[in-house]
Amino acid sequence: xxxxxxxxxxxxxxxxxxxxxxxxxxxxxxxxxxxxxxxxxxxxxxxxxxxxxxxxxxxxxxxxxxxxxxxxxxxxxxxxxxxxxxxxxxxxxxxxxxxxxxxxxxxxxxxxxxxxxxxxxxxxxxxxxxxxxxxxxxxxxxxxxxxxxxxxxxxxxxxxxxxxxxxxxxxxxxxxxxxxxxxxxxxxxxxxxxxxxxxxxxxxxxxxxxxxxxxxxxxxxxxxxxxxxxxxxxxxxxxxxxxxxxxxxxxxxxxxxxxxxxxxxxxxxxxxxxxxxxxxxxxxxxxxxxxxxxxxxxxxxxxxxxxxxxxxxxxxxxxxxxxxxxxxxxxxxxxxxxxxxxxxxxxxxxxxxxxxxxxxxxxxxxxxxxxxxxxxxxxxxx
Length: 382
Known about the structure:
This protein is of the alpha+beta class. The chain has four domains: 35-47 and 300-372, conserved putative lor/sdh protein from methanococcus maripaludis s2 fold (Beta Barrel), CATH 2.40.420.20; 51-60 and 218-295, Efflux pump adaptor protein, beta barrel domain (Elongation Factor Tu (Ef-tu), domain 3, Beta Barrel); 62-92 and 186-217, CATH 2.40.50.100; 95-184. Helix content is 31%, strand content 36%.
């Protein structure tokens, strides 16, 4: 009997040991089945960040300098790349011919004025004779036929004066036109700038309106950019906008104008920014590309998720959210990028824990061991 009791006790001990070992092994297996992943929280951020948009430097003054008269190019005084001042002579067109035409028109004016003097003198002589004849009406010396002839002559002389005066007006207008053509024969720069193109050479004949030069202002500049419509809506006139060149020159600009028409293809709005080119360490070139930094939404807050948490599957954005130490896959809708994060429009909430490393190998519902991330805030925009 004693032997039987000892055998039972020994059996209980063996069972207890086996159960303990099995429990330990199960715990180890369970621990080994949980995949270690790096995680990060969905956080609420103030949207004082900016997004870069490519802009371009444009000149506020660009002009084709045309020939305002027809003729032969007598002289070209500038070359491509020359800086010119407003009023500087660029070329001469048949200058001698237009001088002669102006002199002829002035001579015609003087001759017509002399004709007027002569006509007035004739009229005065006729008037004296007519008045003398009228004074003889009561005497026997009065000659009716002569009196009537003097009256007719007076009417004719008055008409002659009017004709010559009209001729003078015409001559004066011709003189003005000739002097204007003489002025136009000297081609001058309409504003300060740089000769970008030269389309004529000495000796060429040009017609009215023929383009002689392309002149571009290198001082009156501004920046033009096409900004996404959803970003342009928050902009206001005189907003300060930061700008950076490709060689890292940063400067401030002001919003001068905001377009009224959206580009239906790109969904953008044109904006125009003013800046002081003289304050920069170097002058910007017309056509140069620059980065302008458009505010995302000053004073607003929105949940954001780390960019490494995003998985792309068949055009959808997905994330693994850790719930009760299991990976739950969820679709979400994203907004703009904010540094190394994306704005969350829907799908997950502030405070959710998402997997940012190791998520490529996970399966929905898989057990995970979350490890908090220690480096998640690099790369934010200015």
